[in-house]
Amino acid sequence: MIVSHWNSSEAWSGLSVVISCVLALVGLLGVGGVSSGVVSLLSAPRAKNKTGFNLVLSIISLLPAILLAVVAVVLVEALIHAFQIPVAQIPAPTAVIQKFLESRQVLWRDTQTTLLEAGVGYLIGASLGVIVAILVSRYQFLNKGLMPYATIFSSIPIVALAPVIVKAAGLEWGSKAAVVAITIFFPVLVNTARGLLEVNPLTIDLMRSYAADPRRVFMDLRIPNALPYIFNALKISTTLALIGAIVAEFFGSTGSGLGFRILVETGQASFDSVWAAINIASFLGIIFYNLAALLERRVTGWHVSFRE
Amino acid sequence: MMRSSHFVPMFIVGVVLIALYFPIMLLANYPAAARALQRGAVLECKTALECSFDMRSPIIPAPAQLLRGVRSLYFPPTSETSVPYNAFFTGLETLSGLALASIVGLGLAVLLVASKAFERALLPWLVASQTVPIIAIAPMLAVLLGQYGVEGWIPKAIIAAYIAFFPIAIGVSKGLRSPDPIQVDLMKTYNAGSLQTFAKLRFPSSIPYLFTAFKVSVTAALIGAIISESATISGAGLGKMLSENSRASDAVGLWLVMIGSAVLGILLVSIVGWLERVVTPWQRNR
Question: Which residues are CB-contacts of A47 (< 8 A; sequence separation ≥ 6)?
Fold first, then answer.
């Protein structure tokens, strides 16, 4: 069915592409194997609490992955040139970099727009989620009446929500921030409520035997107990925020934003721009996630999961 | 699952939410309706309040409008322009994407656990890929697959699989490592080979992790399927309906498609939950 669209010479070139890709994959595995062997040799004498040395070690342990990526990019470049695949199908990595440098001002504006949408939506959604979770933990009625809905709502695809909200709230960045806030609200609510409620009964008894009033129990027991859950939700939400912003931009925007750029350039088959935008979005995602992880480490560094 | 003590509070909260819908709707529609009246548009309604319930392009549609829309967009369910018909296709694409993703994800997870070299080289990228808005790639992938002559439901399933397989690979590799060292030692004392240890111990203990990953990735796969449908606008599907209604700015239609997608999402998640209960009965007491 797929092959029937090609004539025989195209089918042959298609086959050779497949074969080269398989060979390339095998080669990549070899690179991964060799480099990880080198790394395990290097990192064999474990350092004893020398932080500088540990940093070097952690960089070295990332070496196979970095090497793999470099080799993969070079291979893709070589394959694309070897088979003369046009930019309208798969652009070479160098073409993407060139495009990135050419249109960096437009891409920078897109990045700012998407960041604004995702950031504002993230802050609003996360704080609303935490506030409602506190109410839920305070009132048993809300816990029973609201949480089942929250669980159901978290399985709704945001794509379907986005056009409705963009239609109702306009094409400005605010509508996209609203989509992001709604997307994030439910995971934060569900996780925070679980953290606030799933407290060891023994510790509650202990607090009671100390004659602690409910406020103290809340501040000294429930909140610290919930913090790891909250940060887990906050970490997941960073990705969700960017997804929400990009998807919402697919359904209407005022002419800037990474999602808008991706959609428009896809329509014109200029995939080098699309790849540039995708790479920026990925980069943003990694930075955003690691910021949340850094905050987690700062605030809940005492937690078991961080101990060696 | 749902205890009977939840019913009354759930009912009351539901009623309150529905009751809140009216004032929010009025608040959203009233200014637009008043403006339309001032402009002297020929309308069947007299006051702005009345008009808020019956606008041609409402900001938030009135319940009566939604009900009327249900009649035209949900019935008959076999018609090509109805929501259930398109939702069926989207659901099918999502599930086949999920099946494909679980094959790829399982294979990758086995490789990750079996080969230290593979893990060292690949795991950082897999972890990083979890933090990346992978959905951004969907429109391009849909167009690209179309250029290679892959059309119909297949490209959508491939994109759904592409989005869903990362969580599955990570989850299953975690699951394959989850057996207690004591259990692994026990298998060793039975003189079981690594293949037997895999089949009898590692694989069964990874299944709960597989389902946890499924629950995350089924929604992701659904989003991927809908986005790729709306990017190609060929064939059937909720995504196609969404982009058509979005372009025609048919608010009632958009709402109804949204409700349809929500129901589909809930349905798919509950199918995964049901499968989990069937496949892993030993987990039921959790």
Answer: A53, A54, A57
